[in-house]
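Supplementary Methods. Inverse-folding protocol.

Structures were first reduced to a discrete structure-token string of length 122. This string, shown here, constituted the complete conditioning input.
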């Protein structure tokens, strides 16, 4: 009986390690590395010297602030899958190109702020 108990407990560190890895990987996906996510539904990426929209934004996000960066283009897939997004702040960037389908998945979008110097719509 003692051998069986010892075997069960010897697996515990392995299970804890796997749980820790899974929890960590979920956290990375939930918030882009260069941003701050104080609550699960908000992504704050202001003043981060970003050139592109971060790719690791979770689908449950409701508010994104990408203001004061160096973003120049909005691509077709930048906001794909973000149907719950209500607020999108893109002010004080250098956006000059917006793909015509860049906002197609944003069915819940209520408020947006975008710099108004556009040259191209693709």
């Amino acid at each position: 009986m003692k051998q069986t108990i010892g075997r069960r407990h010897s697996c515990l560190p392995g299970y804890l390690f796997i749980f820790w890895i899974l929890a960590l990987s979920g956290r990375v996906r939930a918030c882009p590395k260069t941003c701050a996510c104080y609550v699960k539904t908000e992504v704050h990426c202001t003043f981060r010297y970003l050139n592109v929209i971060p790719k690791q934004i979770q689908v449950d996000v409701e508010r994104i602030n990408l203001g004061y960066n160096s973003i120049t283009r909005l691509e077709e897939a930048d906001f794909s899958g973000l149907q719950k997004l209500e607020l999108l702040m893109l002010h004080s960037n250098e956006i000059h190109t917006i793909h015509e389908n860049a906002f197609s998945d944003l069915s819940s979008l209520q408020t947006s702020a975008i710099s108004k110097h556009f040259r191209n719509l693709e």
